[in-house]
Amino acid sequence: MAAQCFRAVPDDIARIGFAIAHRIDPSAPTVTDLTDEQVRLVEHVAATLLAAKKPLVVSGMQYGSPALMRAAAAIASALARTIPASGLSLVLPECNSMGLALLGGLTLEAVMAQARAGKIATLVIAENDLTRRLSPAAVVELLEAVPNIVIIDHTDTPPCRDATLVLPAAAFSECSGTLVSQEGRAQRFFQAVYPPQPIRAGWRWMQALARAQGCVNVQAAARIQATGLTTWQGLDDVIAALGRACPILAGMVDAAPGADYRIDGQKLRSQTYRASGRTVIRSHISVRDQPPPGSPDTPFSSSMEGAYTPDMPPSLVPGYQVPSWNSVQSLNRFQHEIGGDMRGGISGVRLFPAPDATDHPIRPCATDIPAAFARAEDSVLVLPDTRLFGSEELSMLSPPVAARATPPTLRVPTGAAGPTHMTLHLPDGAHTLPVEPLAGLPDGVVLCPSHMVSPAFMFPCMARITPAGEAT
């Protein structure tokens, strides 16, 4: 899809981005000391963007470079002065990164500091593998510093082995909740799978822990009662409480209708008319027909029976199906016109709407342009090499997916290819890897598969590399 590919370190790409912004808008800061190749690239990209009707600038957090994202914002800001329809999209690393950022809270560094100071008696880790966030030494230090570790998770993560208590949480398909996209749009997801007991949604375990704590600690009971946590009856109560505690998330209530929503007095069906086999699913246990499982947190009935109409809210549409229409074409019946808005309204809700140019003037471009990358004599810049098969956490727990993951390699510039194996000295220790030359990779840079060699490696760092077997 790309018309041209240019490989450089994040800071050098950011410098090119700022130069493009200056070429589009001369009032933006200028960038000096560009190579002839970079100047030609700047001219080409700027001309291409100015010729577009709706240019979109895309960047993200893969390389952990604020300068890279500021450069993307500078280009979008420069374009917006002449092309109001221009846009900016910053890709985030995980499906709910934006939601967690809006929720706020302590950083892992702050938690570590409190643990070292002995200020944490009990640490609850909810659906997160700390080995992918902290170095092995930091994980051990944290687990040893806190007397009681409670883990609520749907996956058996390494810290579970040292936890005081492990509680089985429902996975995303086994519960309902809300995610906030990189656009800032709150989007509801609904339970599709009904797990056996004692698996339950993470917030229900939190509620159970709070009730248990209130029974044995009078002082804690008063604080817990003040939060209202023990009185929650369903997901709607959780969302409402979250909106009160964090006002910027208050709009989540409107992401989808609540559990009491009905159409003509009926719950909505979550299965298609063609769905069948409910009895067969558990025929190895009993051939008795079982009633559909209850779904108290949603307006759905887990069956083929229930309300279903093209005018229903889009966030509640379980699938597009209209008699005499193929499944893909059925979508047209749910829209006002082909390619138009949904008849039931907009799905989800933006928590921070796009600013109006008349009320919010275009912000000036950033001025903190990074210096050009200078290769170090005794170290290289290690960039994460995110792989489709190998870097993602949950998919690698599936044997068929894991089987497609190729062994990790250390990608180096073609001019630096030497020994067949080299040792990469990351903060968590030394890792010996086979070497794979990569054309176009700048000198002084190597690529290491993220999360495959070092579980916590996901952002760039400076490190030494030595021939395998060489004394350090």
TrEMBL record:
It is an enzyme of class 1 (oxidoreductase). Residues 45-211 form the Molybdopterin oxidoreductase domain. GO terms for cellular component: membrane. It holds the Pfam family Molybdopterin. One of its GO terms (biological process) is respiratory electron transport chain. Keywords: Iron, Iron-sulfur, Metal-binding, Oxidoreductase, Plasmid. Residues 286-306 are annotated as: Disordered. InterPro entries: Mopterin_OxRdtase, Prok_molybdopt-oxidoreductase. GO terms for molecular function: iron-sulfur cluster binding; metal ion binding; NADH dehydrogenase activity. Its EC number is 1.6.5.11. The keyword Protease does not apply. This is NADH-quinone oxidoreductase subunit G.
